[in-house]
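re: the backbone from monday

yeah here it is again, tokenized this time
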């Protein structure tokens, strides 16, 4: 699972308005996660765990604009965020948000970094570690 783009995030000044827009314009399915002030987005068929069930699409999320979510962000799947953070810094990237659990950690871990060109990119690690 290391290195694939597996998620996207869209910032919104009004998450409700963004949900309505993307649902109506593209048929995306939304799952509100009020405890995290976030909306999970399915852009195609999903399996029992809510993960894409077919090749050719990825899922994403809509979050309130702010912090590291000022522009759309792609998220790279990695096996170990902590190890990836070290490699990113060795190659000129800058860690913006170190590894932290998503919710209680059962959904995995996340982090953010700036690449060599100043872009904010997300990291995702599945499961508890």
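seq for it, each position gets an aa:
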């Amino acid at each position: 699972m290391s290195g694939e783009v597996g998620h996207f995030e869209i910032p919104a000044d009004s998450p409700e308005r963004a949900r309505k827009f993307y649902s109506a314009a593209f048929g995306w399915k939304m799952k509100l996660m009020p405890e995290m002030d976030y909306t999970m987005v399915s852009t195609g068929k999903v399996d029992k765990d809510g993960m894409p069930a077919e090749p050719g699409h990825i899922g994403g999320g809509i979050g309130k604009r702010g912090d590291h979510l000022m522009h759309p962000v792609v998220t790279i799947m990695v096996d170990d965020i902590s190890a990836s953070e070290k490699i990113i810094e060795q190659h000129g990237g800058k860690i913006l948000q170190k590894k932290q659990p998503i919710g209680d950690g059962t959904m995995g871990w996340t982090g953010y970094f700036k690449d060599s060109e100043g872009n904010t990119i997300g990291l995702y690690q599945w499961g508890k570690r």
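The chain has one domain: 5-125. The beta strands are 5-12, 29-33, 38-42, 59-64, 73-77, 94-101, 109-114, 120-125.
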